[in-house]
Specification:
Elements: E1 16-19, H1 28-31, E2 38-41, E3 55-61, H2 74-79, E4 86-91, H3 100-107, E5 112-119, E6 130-136, H4 161-224, H5 227-237, H6 243-260
Helix pairs in contact: 3-4, 5-6
């Protein structure tokens, strides 16, 4: 999925994009924002500026500074968001190793809710693996339809708002993390079924090989106990036997053979 496709409502009500990514990071061309939406760069740490309603902040969090912002540095930025302002947070961690608990910590205290979490495996942005759409809210917004049916807001601001926001954010982030695992599990189930079929076929071939080996061993045992082979061994062991001794040995072997019969 491309960056501009993460949420069809991303730019609803947005008048300005404020890019707080590192100066060496260039993401503007990937946004494909509407023409009426202004764009400007700003410093990540600027406590004097309040990011008002109608502003979409663009940030990149990840494990590799200075291009990536560490999760601990997001708290001041989130605190500057006015109600209604949004944050498009790009993530530099692979989804399978996403430290979502570190991302959750600054969201609840700042009254910020994750509205959408989208993997970006097919994006053209190198090193960006997922995107979060975060909004400063005054009440807990209902989850998006792909998570649960449309319904009324989950609650109003109260003493438990931060806890409600944490639960809602953790639900969205947890779903983001488990989606690839569920897809991988389905692939592994198919692979296990194929391996089980292969194993059954190999077991059948092994049983057939063991039966053929038993037949060969039986035939070999019969050959090893035969009189011609015994006579040949006698002659090889004593090649200079006199004729009388050889005849006597042959008679003894024939006698033993008749007695067995």
């Amino acid at each position: 999925m491309r960056l501009h496709e993460i949420d069809e409502r991303l730019f609803d009500g947005i008048r300005e994009i404020v890019d707080v990514t590192h100066e060496q990071v260039t993401l503007r061309r990937h946004l494909r924002a509407p023409e009426h939406v202004a764009y400007r760069r700003a410093a990540l740490a600027d406590p004097a500026e309040v990011l008002a309603d109608g502003v979409l902040v663009l940030a990149l969090a990840g494990p590799n500074p200075p291009g990536h912002t560490p999760p601990s540095a997001l708290a001041p930025l989130l605190g500057r968001l006015a109600p209604g302002a949004r944050l498009l947070l790009l993530l530099g961690w692979p989804v399978a190793t996403l430290p979502h608990h570190r991302l959750l910590e600054p969201l609840g205290p700042a009254s910020c809710q994750v509205l959408a979490a989208t993997p970006l495996d097919g994006t053209a942005i190198r090193g960006v693996h997922a995107a979060l759409v975060v909004e400063r809210v005054t009440s807990v917004a209902p989850p998006r339809p792909y998570l649960r049916p449309e319904g009324p807001p989950l609650g109003e601001p109260a003493d438990g708002t931060a806890a409600l926001l944490r639960m809602a954010n953790e639900y969205v982030l947890g779903d983001l993390v488990t989606r690839p695992a569920r897809r991988r599990l389905a692939e592994l189930d198919d692979r296990v079924a194929a391996l089980t079929r292969d194993l059954a076929e190999r077991d059948a071939r092994l049983r057939e090989s063991e039966r053929a080996l038993a037949e060969v061993r039986a035939r070999l045992s019969a050959v090893e106990s035969s009189s011609p082979l015994a006579l040949g061994r006698l002659l090889l062991d004593r090649p200079r036997l006199a004729g009388r001794e050889a005849s006597a040995g042959l008679r003894r072997m024939l006698g033993r053979r008749r007695s067995r019969q």
